[in-house]
Amino acid sequence: MKKTIFISTCTLILLSVIAKAASFFVRILLARGMSTEAMSLYSLVSPTMLILITIAQMGIPAAISKVMAQNDRYQKPLFSALLFTIVTTVATVVLFAVFIPFLSTLLFHDAAIDQILYAILPLIPLVALSGLCKGYLLGKRHHLLSTSSQIIEEAARIAFLLFTFQRVHTFDPYQMAALAMFSISIGEFASAVYMMLCMHLSFSSLKAFPHAVPTLKKEHYDQVLQISIPMTSSRFIGSFTSFLEPLLMLALIKESMHAAMIEAYGIINGYLLPLLTMPSFLTITLSNMLLPAFTYRLYRHDAQNAKKLCVMILGTCLLIGSGCAIICFLFPSQLLQLFYHQSLGAKTLKHLAIPFILYALQPPLTSLLHALSCSRQAMWDTILGSLLRLFCVCFLSPFFQADVLSIGLCAGMCLTTLLHAIRLFGRFLHHEQGSFLPKA
């Protein structure tokens, strides 16, 4: 039994390494295939994409995995989650399509950005579908299939980018940024098809959905929404902060500094963050594995093994994050030159390396708080971190100019992670009768 678990864990980590390597290769393709201006435009619109993904998914994937881990009678909640996702996805696509001209002219102050925004539209239903499939597979504890889907996603995106970059030499920066944005839809489509094939969905099971909708009750929706809404709130706050950050930054500085600030924003988000967040491929994988496994032990009153699992994964994530941070701190210019064939932002990378050790702990800490039914508290931690980040951008931009981006990013991330850790530690200190679930 232990040997089987060890082999499965090693296989999962290996697949995660391959998926992250493929994801990073996509970043390299984008950085080398697009100009700095195109990368900056792509980075500027990416927060809008993240908000739409958050709204379309509504935290349903993680909610499905938790509901399925808690009990065996999950069919009705699963159908309610599917129906809710369909409604939110359709509404999001329609409203976003209507407001694209408004966003490009009044918020981004550049009508040409609308072609990048239109490239996001096909992504919304695809990411909602792939999220449902991933939540189902994680709930069934098919972690290998879920991780394999990430490899399929990145492989499809790489193939698309390699094929198109060789044939679009005359594209301007806006068209190149739109092409890069559309490549995400290609990857999500391939991932969703792969997961649906792995789930062996029969026509009869799909046919049962319309007949099951009238039988759904409020309690079936509540089982999902009580988990998904707090999780969505936390993610939406983070995405909305990222969306507001460049807009506030540009609004509070002189117009003559706009080009420099947009370039700095593109360097941080396009070049530096992929290096700083490199450990996330393992920490997110471990946290996705942690939520169902931790919940399974927790709701069966196996608190001792649940805590051992928690400590083991947090320690592993901290070790992984420390190793990556040391490399970024010691060799910033060499890393940028190796991957991107340029060394812009090397000094900023060195300054952010050590604080970003804490970032490796954020995914597992968030998963643990959700499993402990502390989603609301996790949401407030995210709010406070986001407010601190916006505070830095709003009040320090005139003084620090481009450096304010790294200051706000680091301050918000550290505050959220530390608050998560304090809440989890407090829960461990006050658990009673072999369980540290909150009292009813």
From TrEMBL:
It is a multi-pass membrane protein. The chain crosses the membrane at residues 45-69, 81-104, 116-139, 174-197, 236-253, 273-299, 311-332, 352-372, 379-400, 406-426. It is found in: Cell membrane. InterPro entries: Poly_Biosynth_Transport, Polysacc_synth. It comes from the Bacteria. The keyword Cell membrane applies. Its main location: membrane. Keywords: Cell membrane, Membrane, Transmembrane, Transmembrane helix. PANTHER family: PST FAMILY PREDICTED COLANIC ACID TRANSPORTER (PTHR30250), STAGE V SPORULATION PROTEIN B (PTHR30250:SF24). This is Oligosaccharide flippase family protein. The lineage of its organism: Bacteria, Bacillati, Bacillota, Erysipelotrichia, Erysipelotrichales.
